[in-house]
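USER:
Make up one protein:

ASSISTANT:
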Amino acid sequence: MYTAVLLAVIPFLLWLLKNANHLLYETAQLGSKRFALPPGNLGWPFIGNMWSFLRAFKSPYPDSFMDSFLSRYGNTGMYKAFMFGSPSVIVTSAEACKRVLNDDEAFGSGWPPSTMKLIGENSFIGISNQEHKRLRRITAAPVNGYDALATYLTYIEKIVVSSLDKWGNMGEIEFLTELRKLTFKIIMYIFLSSESETIMEALEREYTMLNLGVRAMAINIPGFAYYKALKARKNLEATFGSIVRGRRMERERKENSKTMKRDMLDALLEAEDEDGRRLSDEEIIDVLIMYLNAGHESSGHTMMWATIFLQQHPHFLQKAKAEQEEMIKKRPVGQKGLTLKEVRQMPYLSKVIDETLRVVTFSLTVFREAKHDVKISAYKLSNSLLSFLFNDFIPKAGSFLPFGAGSRLCPGNDLAKLEISVFLHYFLLNYKLERVNPESPIRYLPHSKPEDNCLGRIKRLV
């Protein structure tokens, strides 16, 4: 009798466990609205679809995650899932992505709470649309303004030239590691006027640990990536907190502090809204943590992949190099170094950078939360987490969004492309990369990179 009961109960319990998310989040909370949701499944309790997501992105074929949805439900462009601790809708079509990212009335920031704890509730990803616009107004000109970019160009150029020269004498290097140091040095100078190697190395180690936890499961237990990431976040808070407090004291000691604008930190300390409200230390710390992270990771990885792709395709490398050589021939006599006008007149190199951003897709997910029920195509989205992943490229509006879109477009996009353009200009003209392990396996989390960090030698061209 007991055996018969067990044989009857166990399948029921398994069914209940497997459908717990569906019963809790769809049947109980949405009622009849659930029938308007896109196809998909919410997976197992707590875990949802995260195991299959992490398994796919730790394999040689990360597209297998979305392929499983395509094979089961067809190419519908939207799928329901349970990701990063919340019921979600994965949006993959260009039209739907464009709608989600541009409609501020219907969609707000929807990053997972676990990510918010790491990046910061006062950073660009955590604040409301209104606060986001206010913060963009404060930071846009000092980061992306024409005068600011022209000023940064001189420093970027100097650091790129000296770094390439140093790498050429170092023998084997981890190319990606050195590029991340390069871009971190640039962003540290822009925001903090700091060139301290000791501080940069310490902060870079903490950022490496932080990023490993951003797309991990939120398990706050010693030994897990998320636990280590939270510790890194606390260390970054302490470091930046000390810097902010020190700068405030320095400015208070100087009578002309209101006219001081050495770097981005000064701009943040002086910024105030129409009501005279200034940013608190906590807000400034979150902005610094976010900007310094985004400002070096994406640029460094894009430089590496652009270099790899060009050397894998010599024909395109020669076209990109010829454009740079032709530009130098047309320079006025006596001009030394690049000008911002020249950087903005590199059409082929710009295409190389865009293609690299398209193929690599540095930020594979962006999150939005529906403020109310929203109908997109044939589906009705309740206020659930929204994300998008690129599976392929269709050349039309909404299909190429490397820096996001809408009012939450990445505020440092022009600075990032400037750094990448300057680096590729000097690399193409004077150097080549000889990889030690050209067939090195690729790791896809938290960002796509060769497992050996692109180990190789930088060789000067004869």
